Amino acid sequence: MESAVIVVVGADKPGIVAGISSKLAENNVNIIDISQTVLRGIFAMIMIVDISKSKINISKLREELQSKGKELGVEILVYHEEVFKYLERV
Amino acid sequence: MKYTADEIVEVVRMLSEEDLDIRSVTLSVNTLFALSDNLNKIIEKLDNLNSLFSRFSSTVDKIQDKLGVRIVTKRIAVSPIQYFLEIDGIEGLEIAKKLDEMAEKNNIDYIGGYSAFVDRGFTKGSKRVIDTLSETMNSTRRITGMINAASTMSGINTDGVRYFTDQIFKMKPEASSRVTIMANVPPDSPFVPSAHHGNGMPEAMISVAVSGPGVIESAIRRNNPKNFQDLHDIIKRSAFKITRLGELIGKNVANELKVSFGSVDLSLAPSPKVKDSVAGIIEAMGIEKMGGHGSLMALAILMDAIKKGGSMATSSVGGLSSAFIPVSEDAIMSERASEGYIDFFTLLALSSVCNSGIDMVGISKKQGKDKVVGLIMDVLAMGITINKILGVRVIPLDLDPGSHVDLGGLLGKVVVMKLKEVNVEKFVNLGGFVPNTIKRLEMG
């Protein structure tokens, strides 16, 4: 499995989770783990997704999610899981 | 694999807020297969490298896209041009122009290797590299050059220092930012301008330099250390993570290109951006202005902690492992130099604990060449005495001390620092060779 970490931050409003997850489904990217919280009106979400069966590569996925993020008024960061593994696991 | 939210937030903060990025990925490649007594043949053979250069360039972009980590520059290091110029009738400038053009075509930021080794004396080729240095740098944009004029093994070639100084006085500011004079240059540095493909290296190799001063600075500010051990520990932990990122990128690029992975410099290099400053780390430690008393100890702690943290993160250490303090490329260093907190003697003192030497400082041409020769001699003498890699990269300008010029991009704001108004003409013009020190005997 090849996974990626998606971080979403922004002002809370309805439809953020739906918007992002439908974009992921569209590209055959499966959500493995999701944690979401709203802190003083700030929406924060971390997702771990499986990109091994994705229709598009990670850089294209990043691009698409970021433009979706613009529509939704949130900032979206997408990193390959390897980065976390290298920095956080020895 | 499971990650906690804290771990994810830490990585994201390092990459997106604290400006942790990869300063350079360098492909070092042997170009000696192109040696010939016919210039056209050399050019023709070098052309064969275009496909490797373009694959390298696209691979770096691909890895950057895949991992989402910014890679600031792409560099190539070639075999020292000295070897080509040992043969009569070969034009260094023509080879340099060819390499420059290949770099531009393949989207490579710098190509290092207009270099020569003169620490024990001159050969025909090394002398020709020096003699053509200003013309070559003035007529190219991406090639970089290095003269190794001193080594613990050999001593110091003071004539080399004088010839080099003559050359930089004839260069445009942007051109002199692409040359350095060194003591004990390593064969595998990914750093410009000293990058070159050295002896003892494989056919091709990937090296990486990281740039994460912002991460260390904010780790210190956030954790508010209680004592020096605490401070050392905080830096060590951050350095470990920074170096790991370098190794991840380096291995990815090397695997993809099927080239051997060389080394990660256990280094911190600043950039002129805010929050990406080595001086900022020193100030976060509690020195109000970089250059104040205690700065040397602060830098020494930083250096040691970086090396200790980094050496656990990668098994292949190399190049120039250090904290770099190129004055113009570090926004706070540059500011402190304008304010007068940093002068040449401060930089010399700092060089005793890190490897930069005197880097990216403006000098006034009006103050004369002799003082510059003396300054370079001071750095090289320190290099061979304490057995360190040190270099000098100064930018001669037609300006008065205290003024500055902005070179833009990674090069930043070059401040003209005042050389001491003391006549050193008689000493620096003694000429000849300074013998290697007693350290040489310890080496066998």
UniProtKB/TrEMBL annotation, chain A:
The lineage of its organism: Archaea, Thermoproteota, Thermoprotei, Sulfolobales, Sulfolobaceae. It comes from the Archaea. It comes from Acidianus manzaensis. Belongs to the UPF0237 family. Residues 5-79 form the ACT domain. HAMAP family: UPF0237. This is UPF0237 protein B6F84_09170. It holds the Pfam family ACT_6.
From TrEMBL, chain B:
It comes from the Archaea. SUPFAM superfamilies: PFL-like glycyl radical enzymes. NCBIfam families: PRK05313.1. This is PFL family protein. It comes from Acidianus manzaensis. The lineage of its organism: Archaea, Thermoproteota, Thermoprotei, Sulfolobales, Sulfolobaceae.
